[in-house]
Amino acid sequence: MSAGIVLLLHGPNLNLLGQREPEVYGNATLADHETRVASLLKSAGYECVTHQSNSEGDIVDRIHAARGNTVGMILNSGAFTHYSWALHDALRLYAAPIIEVHLSNPGSREEFRHTSVVAPVAAGTVAGFGGLSYDIAVQALTALLTSPRNPTA
Ligand code: DQA
User: Fold this and answer.
1) Pocket test for ligand 1, best of 24, 76, 105 (most atoms within 8 A of CB)
2) Distances in Å between the alpha carbon of 38 and those of 45, 81, 84, 149?
3) Would the pTM count as exceeding 0.90?
4) Which of 85, 118, 134, 138 is the most exposed, fewest CB within 10 Å of its CB?
């Protein structure tokens, strides 16, 4: 029996990883990242379900569907990160921990990428380490699920 299901959710244009600006996002495909995350989560005792969509409404629906039946979420919401208040509102209704992930470091890129509407509702953000960002996100999420952060620590 698994310790619970983790949703690995990807937003727009991330289906083209491997072909899309490899100098920024690397050569690994979305399937490569999904396979590695699923395997890391499995080693930690969790099951992984994955979803990618280029549509904002579909992402919102998938977040709604994850409520109550997943123990956490690893989310790379692509460009929606920077302006989708619909995504922000849906995430606010998701009670379990959310780890925001980016392959690149949006903070060192164009001005429009400096804002994240996900960050205020995420437990934390991992960005700028390529595929390693996902590995760190798995470590952070599983640590959080094992021993929730003590707000006074
Ligand atoms: C991204 C960063 C976003 O700014 C961009 O729109 C993406 C990918 C990343 O993983 O680095 O689509 O989320």
Assistant:
1) 76
2) 10, 23, 27, 24
3) yes
4) 85
DSSP summary character for residue 118 = S
Distance CA 113, CA 82 (A): 6
Q: What is the DSSP letter of 109?
A: S
Instruction: Identify the active-site residue in 10, 25, 88, 94.
Output: 25
Residues 96, 112: Cα–Cα separation, whole Å: 28
113 lines ligand 1 (CB under 6 A): yes
pLDDT of residue 139 exceeding 90, the answer is yes
pLDDT in tens, 64-73: 999 999 999 9
Which domains are assigned to the chain? 5-73+90-145 (3.40.50.9100)
DSSP reduced 3-state for 126: strand
Long-range residue pairs from 148-153, CB within 8 A, at least 24 positions apart, any chain? 149/123
Q: What is the pLDDT of residues 38-56, one digit of tens each?
A: 999 999 999 999 999 999 9
